[in-house]
Every structure is written in structure tokens, then in C-alpha cells.
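Q: Convert this sequence to C-alpha cells.
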Amino acid sequence: MHSTTPEAVRSNTPSHSTAFDRYKWRALIGVTFCYLFYYTGRQTLGFAVAGIEHDYGLSKYQIGWISATMLWCYAGGQFINGNLGDKIGGKTMMIAGAILSLAANWVFSFGHSFLFFLVVWGVNGYFQSMGFAPGSRLLSNWWDHKHRGFVYGVYIGFSGFSSVLAYIFPVLILGALHLDWMWIFRLAPLSMLLGALVLLLMVSERPEDRKLHDEVPDNDAAAPSEQSDFTSAQRYAVVLKNWKLYVTGLAIGLQNAARYALVVWVPVHFLGMDWKNSSALIDPKWITVALPVGMALGSLSNSWISDILFQGRRYLAIILYMTLASATAIIMMFVPHGSMLAIGLLFLCGFFVFGPASSFWALCPDIFGRHVAGTATGVLNTMSYLFAGIGEPVIGHMIDATGNTSIIFPIVAGLCAASAVMSMLIRR
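A:
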């Protein structure tokens, strides 16, 4: 007579499946909520540019190097911390990153020289890199390929809303509270503690921790289950020997350079030194908020489109948005600052530029499998932010040289067009 073990019986009961569903949703909600506040620790520099220039005489070229150093340290940290997320767990890494980044922001607020700002903002970039790739690994522990377009759409979408908070908090601190620029780095990042607390209390690292072994999503063709025993060196080898990493890295690097060109320099373009005395019909500080709102909604939509409209062919969704982003950025060159048209086009620019990020990151577990998802995400993000960092001092120098902040838009258009071309080579 056929018999079953108690463990097998329990794994097939409705309550067992219900428990897994509950924990996987808690993972998605907890990770995305934690990352919702991460950008308040690294995307606020644009609002402090005028104050730092005024107080310490720094040029936009120098501030571009400060921003670039953060991005490059973030890139290097991604290479390390993605693998650590695979090794010691995404939950621990994300919580530690939030706390350490908060401390770095506070130190930065007491800065007084170019070298001080450069070093501290670079250190902050490394701490910030402890969030995204480990969080991606945690999500891949609970969600399979079939649902990844949705899951990464939500995850990247919340990172887009994190950009919204990273814009709104400085606007309130400078405008409503009438505080100086240094308070941006003291008050806004406090929100990261809330996200870390929710992650700590709400999320389990993996199904195995809850004795849900039979529910583990191991349906990735690229990664058989035995890969979970890989060493760090073996995980890097699996990722680095795959040629698709380099094509995808170049494509997302160009996209991310366009994104940070907007994130850092749009506040400078629309606000300038005398934004509080602007006579524009619409307050420029609220015009700038249209950018991260568009970014958030764009990332929510792109991976969904890649699943539904293009049946998982994510590169087609990426090409579509990058092409539209290039066209929108060109039009932005000729739009008056204080118009409703500026709000609409800036929203669309953010929507199309950042939208493909969710499809790009869903490619990591798609191509490499969940057991090296953290390492793959980290390596790809390293490439992504190397490109973003190169652009910052170049753009800052061009603005200093020409006195024309609208030069950011043809740069963004060119980067997006190049990303679209490279994305044609991506296949799963």
C-alpha cells in the first residue's frame, strides 16, 4: 500500500499553499516598501547644488564629479553586494544599507570642501548599493519566471516612487520649512529607517526558512537547483561568461546615464539660483516633481507590457520606450519652463526613460536563474552605473561652458537612441 510522509502530506494541504502565498506577498510588499525610501538617501543632491555653489564656491563641474563618485562607488558596491545578497541574504543587506546610508547623509550635511563632499558621497554610494541587488535576490526566492514581469514592475515602480519622495522631501524642506540645503540630507533619509523596520518585521528571506521547501520556485531553465551550492567564484563565473550580460549591460548603461542626467540636472534646469522668486505661472519646484512621477508609472507599465503585449520578449518593450524617450527629450529643448506643456512632457520623458528599467532587471533571473540572481543583478548594475557616472561631470562641464541647462535634453535623446539600438541584440 502506498504511503506518504507527514511532510509530503502537509506540503499538499491548502493551508500549506496558502501560507506560501501569504509569505511571498509579504516579501514583495516588504521589499518594495523598504526600497521606496532608499532614493531619499542618494537622489537629493540636485536640490542642494545651488546652496553648495553659494556657500563653498563649487562649480557644476565639481559637483558633477561628486555625483559621479557616488555613482561609481555604487557601481563597485553592486558588484560586491549582489553576490553577498546571494550568500548571506537580501534582508540583512537591505537593512544594513539603509542604516549606514542614513549615517553617511548626516556626515555629508556637515561638509565644507570639495574633497570632503566627494569622499563622503562616494561612501554613501557604496552603502546605497546594499539595497537593490540583494532585494532582487530576495524576491526571486519567492516568485517564479511566470510572475516576474509583474513583480519587477512593482519593485522598480516603487523605486520610481522613491524618486518622487526624493523630490518632494527637498521641496518641502527648502520651500515649506524654509530650511537650508544641509537639512535635505538630515531629514529626508530618516524615512529609510521606517522601510528597514517594516522589512525586518514582515519579510522572511526564503521559503525554506518557513519550511515551505516544496513551494520553492525552481522552474528557471537557466538554473538547476544544485546551483544553490555554488561558491562566490562559481556564481561570478556563471554570470561573467554569458555574453548577454555585456550586451544588456551596455544597453542599460546608456539608459541609466540618461536617467541620471535627468535626475541630477532637471532641478538645476527648472529651479536655478532664484527659483523662489520665479514669476512663472506654475511654481517650478512642482514642475520638477512630474519627472519622478512619470518614472514611477513608466516602470510599472513597461514590464507588464513585456509580459502581456510582447509575450515575455522584454527587449521589444525596452526598444519601444527608449525610442519614445529620445523623441520626447528632443521636444523638451524648446518648451518654456513655466508651462503646462513642460509638466506634461517632463512626465513623459521620465515615463519613457525610466520605464524599461523593470524589464531590464527582470532579465537577470530570466537569463541567469534565481540562484545567481543577486550576483547577476549586481554585476549588471555595476555596468549600468559606470555609464551613469561618466555622464555627470561631462554634463556639468558643458553647462558651465555654455551656460545653457537645456543641453541635458539632446544628451538624453542621444543616450536613449543608442540604448534602443543596443537592445535590439537582447533575446531571452
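The radius of gyration is 21 Å.
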